[in-house]
Amino acid sequence: MDRNVFVAIALSMSVLLFWGAFFETPKKTSEQQINQKAVQKREQNSIAPTIDQPQIMKKLTREESINTSKRIKIENGSVVGSINLKGALIDDIAFKKHKQKVEDGKNIIFLNPSDTENGFYIETGWTSIGNKIKVPTKNSEWTVKGNNILSDNSPVILQWNNKEGVTFEKRIELDEKYLFKISQQVKNNSNSLLILGQPP
User: Fold this and answer.
1) What is the tens place of the pLDDT at every residue in 130-143?
2) CA angle (127, 131, 137) in 5-degree steps
3) CA gyration radius, the chain
4) How far is it, in rounded angstroms, from Cα 77 to Cα 97?
5) Are 174 and 149 in contact (CB under 8 A)?
């Protein structure tokens, strides 16, 4: 093969390697930075809760968490506990007819507040399609409308207003054993078109 052909191939390879080393890599890094900044900006501007939001909090004991939050009582013949008005979370449930040990008589605990070591709770709510409507999050403070004790023959109604003309409402019912029924509705007194869905 002609010596000139080898030289041409070598020069072509040099040009490609030089181009890839000094132009392609910085371009990719720049695109990654732009994409990362766009994601951060969307997260900062988001008013709807997201699943992957980091949560950094000091863990409390169960008693500390329950005693330091506003709550409404839950009780019937089978369960006893409370609903946290911050986030409208059902996070305090114990079984009255089932004991941890026969001798001490302590109820078996089923649900625990989220800021405790063994946090396990029931959360319901909405997500805003396109983040155009401010919806309640886990940190929203709900108010009680009417009855403030949930039992098998007295449901409770919780409300949260987004200060933009939209009121979110939850009606929580409990049967004579363990079954909770949660009905949700939205009252729109604004001029906005609501496009809401249940979070995954």
Assistant:
1) 667 889 999 999 99
2) 45
3) 28
4) 8
5) no
| Sole residue written with tokens 């009680």 | 144
Contact 85, 141 (CB under 8 A): yes
Phi, psi of 63 (to 5 degrees): -65, -40
**Tens-digit pLDDT profile for residues 92-135:** 999 999 888 877 788 999 999 999 988 999 999 888 776 678 89
Can you tell me the distance from the alpha carbon of 175 to that of 77, in angstroms, rounded to the nearest whole number? Answer: 10
Q: Please state, in angstroms and rounded to a whole number, the distance separating the CA atoms of residues 168 and 185.
A: 6
Q: What residue type is 18 in one-letter code?
A: F
DSSP-derived letter for residue 193 is: P
Query: How far is Cα of residue 143 from the mean position of the Cα atoms in its chain?
Result: 19
Q: Which two tokens stand for residue 122?
A: 């029931």
Helix/strand/coil for 118: coil
One-letter amino acid of 21: A
If DSSP codes are grouped into helix, strand and coil, which group holds residue 88? Answer: coil
CA–CA distance, 179 with 90 (Å, rounded to integer): 12
DSSP 129: G
